[in-house]
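Hi F.,

I've been meaning to write this up properly since the lab meeting, where we talked about keeping a consistent format for the predictions we share between groups. The idea is simple: the sequence comes first, exactly as it goes in, then the structure tokens exactly as they come out, then a line or two of notes. No screenshots and no reformatting. I'm using this chain as the first example so we have something concrete to point to.
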Amino acid sequence: MSQIIVLSGNNSSEREVSLRSGAAVAAALRANGHDVTVIDPAQDFLAQKEVVQSADVVFPALHGAGGEDGEIQKILESWDVAYVGSNSVASSLCFDKYRYKQLVQGQGIVVPRGELVDQAGFVQSGLSKQPFVLKPFDSGSSVDTIIVRNVSEFDNSKIAELFMRHPRMLLEELIEGDEITVGILGNRVLPVVEIIPPAFGEFDYENKYNGMTQELCPAQNINTDIQKAAQKIALEVHVLCGCRDLSRTDFIIANDQPYLLETNTIPGLTEQSLFPKAAATAGLPMTEAMEQLVQLALARATNTKRVIKSAF
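Output, unedited:
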């Protein structure tokens, strides 16, 4: 049995999802016999240094700014605490969708055309004159993401509202196709999840969590060779970005071509989330998947101690 601290909540726009992820992770680890404490970093996290350092492992179940952007990871690293998930450098890279996009595109991986724009840049961009996606470059769960198929009928007042909350946003061409996602657990590629939004709807924040979206795992309508290609890319990107333990990479499939969208270093871990669904399909129920993640972090901590000891 290990002493584990699960971090969930915080102050990002994805707080509610994070609380649900944290509750699901804590329940799974308690079922495995671990001594689990849940801490909300929004409650004066720095003052809890000694408590956090007393744990064998910290499990960040945090989404959005302050959780996936590398900031909490920097603190844990400075406290010499073993934790689940990608380090601060990889977390920061994947959280910045534009910087991430430049890196993977430089490796020849196909992505939608995109630009980082302010409101004036949006108006001037040729991408805003055709069907487009506009989203924050530094958040997740589809918060404040809009998809515009008919530019002439779109209410531009919504754009002004978005840029009031996000001075710069990622503007991308809209790729019409099938949505899939691929999880990585350790070095294992999980089965593809096919995402089917509700009729006349999108896979947006609301439809992710209201039960209206179909999530098929294993995928049923995607060619097997295309699934394998997406899985190969997901693992390559996981390694390229320096991710560890877990990630989930999203794609759009159009004309048999996987278009890479983004990689999440702390994917949702709620009962409705895609990563646990894929793990379960691979024969890893929530309790076993979460246990594997904890054991990966414990192994790193043990190896670090061995290296330090051998240096003296």
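Notes:
The chain has three domains: 3-85, 94-109+177-281, 114-173.
The radius of gyration is 20 Å.

If this format works for you, I'll send the rest the same way.

G.
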